[in-house]
Amino acid sequence: MEFAWNAAEEAYRAELREVIATLPDDWWEAYAPHGPSSPKLMEHARRFNARLAQRDLIVRHWPQEYGGQDASAWQQIIISEEMWSIGEPRSSLYLGANWAGPAIMKFGTEAQKQKWLRSIAAGELLWCQGFSEPEAGTDLSNMKTRAEPVDGGYVVNGSKIWTSYAARADVMFLLARVGGKGKGGVSCFLVPMDTPGIEIRPIQGVHSRWDFHEVFFTDAFLPADALLGEEAGGWTIVQTIIHYERIGAGRYEKAKRGLDHVVERLKERGLWDDPVVRADCAAARALVEAARLQTYLVIDGRAKDSDPGAETYLARFAMIQADHAVANLTSTYLPDLLIDGADGHLRSQFNSAITAGIAAGAAEVQLNMISGRHLGLPRGA
Amino acid sequence: MDFDLTPDQQALREAIVRIVDDNRDLPRSGGVVEPRAFHPATAMEQAFAAGGYFDIALEPGCGAVEAAILVYEAALSPLVLELGGAALVAPLLTGEALARPVAMARAQDLMRGVRFLGEARTVLVDCGADVAVLDMTGREVAPLDSPYAYPLGRLAAAPDLSAVRKLPGKGAELRRLWRIALALEIAAAMEATVQFTTDYVKQRQVFGRPVGSFQAVQHRLSADAVKSRGIYWLAMKAAWSASPLDAALAALHAQRAIPDVTYDAHQFNGALGMTLEHALHCWTFRLRWLQGEMGGQRGHAAEVAALAWPDAA
């Protein structure tokens, strides 16, 4: 049992911080509060990602043949901690690095691997995720978007919703139905967002004006090589990637740094001497550290190439609780700092937290999975 | 990082689990658990003593993590055994194997109620900056009836702590180690509570279905499992790191989780869970005592706040 970082991991974190130090001085005021899908941050991310790529920092944990350095899965969580905790300056490159890339590595053709994995390692593409639909969110296998086989490829019709990053992403990881109903008919496609027949409608969110979109597909033609894995074999891919998706972003580290910032502001206002305030902050810190260790347990399994078990869902639920605990401290003791322009750091953490229980599978879905896979409880009627 | 036990630690754990499993049966009368507030683990104590397990923290190559494995695994049992003080706190605090059982107490609690006080041969008393090592030979202890699943007692007469062996300046270290032992015992009792309740709701039928098939039950038990596993990892990290902050985080998180988990467990076990003939109380009424040990959450929270966000010098 060992809970310390090794020298290579520490050095990697230090290198990342050197690149982070190049972020604009007004990062917390002008970029981070509006979220990683805001136009300003996404535009900046293309330059920032190029700087990361110049130093081969994006996918150190991947095999060398795909642009990595054969480092362990721990390096993936280190970059996630460093980036997510400051508002994710990579923008949606992280989707590619965290789970789209591993899915392509596992299920893609050699040509797909060379094309997409190299581009992720080079920091060239921003991704979006075409999963949820108006009538299929948590119940994902109920999705209706269809990809009809035609000569040379597929024609896609349907729509996706709540799609973060869609307006400025380069490529979508799309789920569409080729076969019949249910999980068995789902297929995965890698879709350039400039494909004719794709239209995007922004939806303003309470936390961000830019985070949500609806994406419409009208006779959008995809070449045959857009299909990832086997036709109608997409559910297996989904089952694989949800572990990487749910445990990918270092939410606990953003909560921890947000909490440190909360305490700074409480001290400035003379509220830190109140034992109730101190106790509330301490309890939040305990939630954060519990979430961190439960996440690390999942990463430890990933580093050892073990099959992901129920720990993913335990860790995700713990992360949601930690995120909310810190956001609630801000709402309770420093509510005025969530006003536009008051404190970008706290606003960024608050915005992340309020979506934490919805993004990457609702909190209640995590509890369902824990019930079945960790506790072995019987399914309901 | 490596969350797996080393091969030696794994072998140790397996040996401990064998002893715990061989000695975990509750005394029964005609198939029904004998209705007692707690059941001492006499045979398990003898097996651990014969194997030298109480001194594991002092063995070459061993330390707090090995002692933590012992405390956690044994506390999963429904039977009660004093291990936190004897196997973890006392040897790591003093470098000696003190006469056991070893109770731990804040000075102000000696006349109120301390677990294992009547059985203890040594008591480590938190006197603030210092620790008093109280030899219990010849001291009269009044046993206390209580709903708690621990033997409790209080001293019949106030001790003169100025006249006993002192460990000057060791108060903070006692509290650090005590917090680790406390968090481990809570983690284990909570894990056993969740598992016991899970087994019960799988087989207990209501409205023609297992209780455990209702989502209202599933979600709360699942959230309790998240708490239990989080406490376990915080406690193990605290044992590994020797950090006072880690120890305070573990104890704080552990004690905060007790009300929800014990409430849920008793709700889901129904009226049966309110009886001494059902084993649930063997863990939940340990948890209820542990919820207030060391003065409850306040001290841990204050320690976390002071260490995580120190005031400017």
Describe the structure.
The complex is a heterodimer of chains A (381) and B (313). By secondary structure, chain A is of the alpha+beta class. Chain A has helices spanning 7-20, 27-31, 39-54, 73-84, 93-107, 110-121, 234-246, 251-268, 275-303, 311-333, 344-356, 363-374; strands at residues 127-130, 146-150, 153-161, 171-177, 186-192, 198-203, 212-223, 227-228. A 4-stranded mixed β-sheet of chain A has the order 1-4-5-8. In chain A, strands 2-3-7-6 form a 4-stranded antiparallel β-sheet, with no helix packed on it. In chain A, strand 2 (146-150) and strand 3 form a beta hairpin. In chain A, helix 5 (93-107) crosses helix 7 and helix 9 (275-303) packs antiparallel against helix 10 (311-333). The longest helix of chain A is centred in the C-terminal third of the chain and has 29 residues, at 275-303. Chain A is globular. With 313 residues, chain B is an alpha+beta fold. Chain B has a domain at 171-308: Butyryl-CoA Dehydrogenase, subunit A, domain 3, CATH 1.20.140.10. Chain B has 9 helices and 11 strands. Chain B has helices spanning 7-22, 42-50, 64-75, 84-94, 171-203, 215-241, 244-269, 281-290, 297-308; strands spanning 28-29, 32-33, 102-106, 114-115, 122-126, 131-135, 141-144, 152-155, 165-167, 205-206, 209-210. Chain B has a 4-stranded mixed β-sheet with strand order 3-5-6-9, covered by helices on one side. Chain B has a 3-stranded antiparallel β-sheet with strand order 4-8-7, with no helix packed on it. The longest helix of chain B has 33 residues, at 171-203. Chain B is globular. The model of chain B has no long low-confidence stretch (mean pLDDT 97). Chains A and B meet through helix 8, helix 9, helix 10 and helix 12 of A and helix 5, strand 11, helix 6, helix 7 and helix 9 of B.
